[in-house]
Predict the 3D structure of the following.
Amino acid sequence: MVNWRRLYGVTGLAAGAVAAGAGAVVIAEKVAVGRIRLGPDPAADEAFGSQLGTEFAVLADDGLPLHVQVAGPVNAPVTLVFSHGYALNSDVWYYQCAGLAERYRCVFYDQRSHGRSGRSDPELVSIDQLGADLHAVIDAVAPEDQPVVLVGHSMGGMTIMALADQQPEMFGTKIIGAVLIATAAGLVDPLPWLPAVLRPAVRMAVPSMMTGAKGRLAEVLERSRHSASDISFLGTRHLAFGDPRVSPTVVDFLERVIRSTPIDVIADFYEALIGHEKRHALKVLGGIPVLVLVGDKDRIVDPAMSEEIAASIKDAELIKVRGAGHVVILERPAEVNAAVAGLVARALTKHFRDG
């Protein structure tokens, strides 16, 4: 016969041990974050989240308003259009605006359902739709014969590939160059940070979990996201950046951007990402100067995927930023900006030579 008193006693002790362990973990996290925040913080005075330029809206082909900002000289020889990544918004281009808008006309926009853009019908969430949205932005911000260079980070790079697939005639005429940062052309693995033995089970479970991330479950998940600040800080620091000495202010900024993206938007775009396949479109990019850039410590998108892209595009340049992670645009902005400026110079030279 089961001794229920003894069983409950053991269960109670186990629960107490779990609670004590969880408490110890929380304390350890607070101590770790506290120590990090006491270290050097070169970005402490940066105005992250401030307006990047003149704001207006561009309507996508389904009528959805896309939030757009334009900075830089109106008489610049080229317009740079920046497409951000999954669960982010255009604010992450802060350093690129600061470093490039003095010389070039720079356009930053929020992908549909992200940032200040309108919320999409879930049925229209796809990488192909993002390509169509980019087309609408280009038509609005760079009319007539004004040349354009596209810069895409992560999902933003996939957006460029989708546009190349849909509008190949624009590449080499309207679009004279492209920068693909920390991205992939297909077979995207959204869970690269888990131990390999766990990934198959998690891949089976996550889609149904994400599909259920609506209504009451979404509310619960949102509350948990907003309450776990120290965990989020440490997780963002580990997954998004390669250098543990990255500025705590930069980590805080990126964590806030991610947290501002609703959980149901994350769910909708998760399925769009795992269905992404645009290897066949890479040949279109072979007609223009292309830079492929990635941090060699990227834990989100395997750097080998950037190597594959560069190898598939004629004469593409590959730059691997040593020690940098997935959000290299915030972690190593000076190196990124110099690389982008170099690509723009090559694109303009080719454009005016062939013109």
The first helix runs from residue 4 to 38.
